[in-house]
Design brief:
By secondary structure, the protein is an alpha/beta fold. The protein is built from 7 helices and 7 strands; from the N terminus they run βαββαβαβαβαααβ.
């Protein structure tokens, strides 16, 4: 039986992940969403698998089911969490939580999808990193794991380019999502400092990030790999290297 080609998005039930899924579906693509929470929205070309991506064996088992039914020709590692904390307050539990979700789960998904990514000749991998990878107070574990995704992206681009697979990262800055509001409460001094730093004078939207992801996922953009695109309203100016 022929397996349908799909784009796999982790954490697609809400926020940035949902915006990515909806834009892909609007293009006529089939989408598979992996999330611990069920999506409260539906589309005929969307299939959701509920899984705790922090659990390695559960994630592997889920991917065995996904890859037996679908050919994953594009993958977006989007699922994420923050776990705010300084070096004085962060715990090993916080670090384990984020390593498992941001890095280990991404590695499991990539390895499971590799046969189909290679076979199609135009495989695409995009990981959602963060502007915080450049450094952000009270995000010691978060920034470390998001920087790890960037390192993974660059190395994978070198390893997989010969297979026609491009690997890139999108690094959002201040985006109006529940995840942002959880880590940056309204009225808090650090939240105001973030808002004041946005060059374009507005918060980003999940759709701003999704449009960048769709650029990297396009089969037409096979000459761009190993790159990090900051979707941050200009907050990386004077910080990120040229």
């Amino acid at each position: 039986m022929e397996r349908h080609e799909v784009t796999l998005v982790s954490g697609g039930s809400a926020g940035i992940g949902r915006a990515i899924c909806e834009m892909l579906l609007a293009q006529g693509r089939r989408v598979v969403n992996l999330d611990h929470a069920a999506a409260d929205w539906r589309h005929r070309n969307l299939t959701t698998f509920r899984v705790d991506l922090r659990q390695a064996e559960a994630t592997r088992e889920c991917m065995r089911e996904v890859t037996s039914t679908f050919a994953v020709t594009a993958l977006v590692n989007n699922a994420g969490a923050t776990r705010p904390g300084t070096i004085d307050t962060v715990t090993l539990g916080d670090l384990d939580h984020l390593v498992n979700l941001h890095l280990r789960a991404s590695l499991i998904l990539i390895q499971a999808a590799l046969p189909a990514l290679r076979a199609c000749g135009h495989g695409r991998i995009v990981s959602i990193a963060s502007r915080a990878a450049l450094g952000k107070p009270q995000r010691i574990a978060y920034s470390a794991t998001k920087a790890g995704l960037i390192g993974m992206t660059r190395t994978l681009a070198l390893e997989l380019g010969g297979d026609g697979i491009t690997v890139n990262a999108v690094a959002p800055g201040p985006i109006a999502t529940e995840l942002f509001r959880t880590g940056n409460p309204a009225g808090a001094p650090q939240t105001q400092r973030i808002l004041d730093s946005i060059v374009v004078k507005r918060m980003g939207t999940p759709e701003d990030v999704a449009r960048a992801v769709l650029f990297f996922l396009s089969p037409d953009n096979g000459f761009v790999t190993g790159q990090v695109l900051y979707v941050c309203g200009g907050t990386t100016l004077g910080v990120a290297p040229i």
